[in-house]
Structure formats: structure tokens, C-alpha cells
Amino acid sequence: MAYYLTCKIEIGKYTFDYAESVETQSSWQELGDTCTIKLPKFGKQLEKNIRSGDIVKVYLGYNGDNRLEFEGYVVSIGASVPFEIRCEDAVYLLKRHKYEGKLFQNTTLENVLDAILNSFQSQLENPLKIKKMGLPDVRLGNIRIGSGLTYAEILQKLKEDYFFVLYFRPEYLYVGLPYLEHQRGEKPELLDFFTNVVDVNRLSFVKKEDLRIKVKAVSLLGNNQKIEIEVGDHDGELRTLNTRAENDKAKLKQWAESMLQTLKYDGYKGEIVLFGMPFLRHSQSVHLKDVAYPDRQGVYVIDRLKTSFGRSGFRRNIELGKKI
Fold this sequence. Notes:
Layout: E1 5-11, E2 14-16, E3 21-27, E4 34-39, H1 44-49, E5 55-62, E6 65-77, E7 83-88, H2 91-95, E8 102-108, H3 109-122, E9 130-133, E10 139-145, H4 151-162, E11 165-168, E12 173-176, E13 189-192, E14 197-199, E15 203-206, E16 213-222, E17 225-232, E18 237-243, H5 249-263, E19 267-275, E20 285-289, E21 298-310, E22 313-323
Parallel strand pairs: 9-12, 13-20, 16-18
Antiparallel strand pairs: 1-2, 1-5, 3-4, 3-21, 4-7, 5-6, 6-7, 8-10, 11-12, 14-19, 15-19, 16-17, 19-22, 20-21, 21-22
């Protein structure tokens, strides 16, 4: 069966079935996804009628079987040829609304997030569904959120301080711990090195004794107090883990060292290049099948995903996260 690329791109009141190229990038480590669309130069009329804030939906696929790849808003328009449109998902809205500020007393992280997100929702014409999973149970005591900051700035700071993730899907806003969204009862997508994988040259198999990892363990005590400890390789890849179970450094160190052992495993590190199908999203799990080295097979989580579509083909670059 012959395969040919197809797409449907909706920007404001316009619909296109062709693009010079489309590139999307997404990761659970970021607040939002991005998309860059390049279209032929259709004339000045198009430039005048596509504006910042226009709703964008991008469907990509083969032989007319298109999947929703990106949904968001126009951020800016380039003047170059081909006509370039830069987009963001609903993080665009977080960046364009400001919080009025509030003093929270004897509160928790979940209460603060609920208040901020409810305030944000009240400013939207179509409120978003919110999906919470595994949000850390952290007591914050008294905390003031200053006025004049955008919702994106506030949520990014809370995310960095209290070690949860927040990102958008077309169906909802996810708030919680990384890796939980797709792990309950979901069958991993099979990636066979000899069928739907294009390039594995950016991938390497690493023995656990060769892995260099540094763990920063943080125990959240409430009232904005916390204790921290670092274990592992001083020059290793930093992993930050949070807990509320330990209240002194000796116990926290023991816990951190046990977690370090779970992070060191025989497995693949790096990036794989695939064809455009199967449809994948970050945080989803994939089963790597390697007939040449069966002992290296395993299930991994996708940390980061880059999708490219256009004259050069339809490809997905996935960066592997932890092995399940």
C-alpha cells in the first residue's frame, strides 16, 4: 500500500490542506507546546487576516487519516517566505492574563493551585477541564502571591519550587506528578527497531554502572520550610525528587540513596526517530523491541517529542525518559 502525506490546518477562518512544513515540540518539563507552520505565500490578504490570538488546529497523517497534532493560538507571524506562523497551546492564555494577587493563610499547595486556576478559568470564555493526579500533599503555611504577575509566571515558579508538572492537552489541563498520566492500565505503543523506527543512531544502550546521576532530594516541611540533600555523582545528570516523609538530613540521605539505585538501570538513553505513525504524546509509554538484542528490550516513558511534517516527510523524534 502506498502512503502519502495529508493534513488539515485550521487558522482562524482559514483551512489549508497543504503546508510547506509543520513542526511541533512538546514535553512534560514545559508549561506549553509550540508549533511552527510554514505556508506558501498566498498574498497580502492572508497576512492581513491572520492575527495573534487566532485559534489553530493542526491535523496530520497519511492517506487522509489525520490526527489532531496540535491545538492552540497564533502567537506571531513572520514576514519571510514561506509565510511562517508561530503558535503556542493554551499556555498562550496563561501568559496574557494577570493574577490580582492574594495572601493565603495556613494553606496547602493544592488549595493555592485551585484558587489560581479557578481565577484563571473565570477569565476564559470556555473553561478548561482540569485533571489532577498525584499532586504532592504540601502544607505551605502563609504564602503571598504577588499582583501583576501573569498566571504563567506564577505557575512556573510554583512548579519549580514544589516539584509538580503542569501542561495542556487538547482535552484538559494536567496537574500532578510526571509519568502518572498514561501509566494506569495503558498498553505501551510498540516500537520495533526493524519496522517503524527510522533512525536509532542517536540512541545508546547504557549499563547502570556507567550511568552518572546526581539526586537532589527535598523534604517539604510546610510553612515554606524544606531540607535538601544531594547524593550520587557530583558531575551526573541532576534528578530532583521530593518527599514529605523525612524530617532530618540523615533519614533524607538514606531515602535519596535508595531512590538513586532505582534510577540506575541497564537501558537505552537518547533519541529515536520514527515515522509519523503511530500517533504519540509525551508522558506516554513505548515498548522498544529489538530482535537483535532481546535482552535490551523494555518499556520507557517519552520525555520530549518533536514532530516534523512537510516535503522531507513525516517524522517523530522522541527523547526517552525513565525505564518502567
